[in-house]
Amino acid sequence: MRANWLAHAVLCCGVLLFLLPVWLIFAGSTQLSHSIARGELSLLPHLSGLDVYRRVLLGPGVNGEASVPHMLMISACMALAIAFGKIAVSLLSAYAVAFFRFPFRMVAFWTIFLTLMLPVEVRIVPTYLVMSDLGLINSFGGLTVPLIASATATLLFRQVFLAVPDELMEAARMDGAGPWRFLVDILIPVSAANIAALFVILFVYGWNQYLWPLLVATDPRLDTVVVGIVRMIGVESLTPWDEVMAVATLALLPPVAVVLLMQRWFVKGLTEGEK
After folding, report:
1. CATH H-level superfamily of 64-274
2. Nearest to residue 29, comparing CAs of 216, 232, 186, 268?
3. CA 252, CA 93: separation in Å to the nearest integer?
4. Rama region for 181: left / alpha / beta (φ>0; ψ in -120 to 50; rest)
5. Which residues contact 69 (CB under 8 A, 6 or more apart)?
């Protein structure tokens, strides 16, 4: 019993430690900008300052260009496209590697696996050149296509597929199920919890992208909310810190909502992955 109380106390301290910066951002969004610039940031929000959220949502936008709702929509579309794209590509590639026998099958798998050593920051220059040659600069495809492939998701799906009993595959074959029907009717339902867990992780990954959208999209209409927050921070004395913190608070809501709504599936996917 004492050990349980100690564990809960440590967890509560960790939660408070992570929630404090979020609370400071919310409280700061309701206070005067010049007070924040002077370092006079109160821990208590000012109810009279909540009007800042109406201003940032209904105002002209960042530097009079992209509005905050538009940037939130671009971020949401980008995160959804990356999450669904990564899951679809990884699911099919893992299915091919796990169940099909073709020349250099394991070479292809290990080549995919080795791409884990090459993050976006390392290959960003050649990736930008490829997008430029394809005419995808300043386009939604340029924002999402280079970030869709995922070696990690392919590895996870392959491990799930390898755990499928051979008897199940033989039974499906005897029932006349072809490769596509076996994937859709058996493997995808079996992997539902893992797909949900990956969706949460990949949605947050896509939502938080900063470097690639900053380089590939110079059109303000394609600014994500993360890029928009940085653009709002100009000369320190002229930065509307209350609006910056209000937009940062709004930017937290969609990924938090996705995690909370899919929490049960997320935990189930992680625990099943461990098995």
Report:
1. MetI-like (1.10.3720.10)
2. 232
3. 32
4. alpha
5. 57
Nearest to 119 by CA among 152, 76, 94: 152
Give residue 50's pLDDT. 87
Helices (H), 136-262: 140-144, 151-162, 166-174, 179-182, 188-190, 192-207, 211-216, 225-232, 241-261
Domain boundaries, the chain: 64-274
Amino acid letter, residue 255: P
> What does the alpha-carbon distance between residue 234 and residue 236 come to, in Å, rounded to a whole number?
6
**Look-up: residue for tokens 């250099």?**
104
Banded model confidence at residue 275, pLDDT cuts 50, 70, 90: very low
pLDDT class of 272 with cuts at 50, 70, 90? low
The token pair at 164 is: 């499928």
- Which two tokens mark 56? 């940032």
Residue among 142, 147, 124, 119 nearest 203 (CA) = 147
- CB-based burial of residue 135 (10 Å sphere; 0-12 exposed, 13-18 middle, 19+ buried)? exposed
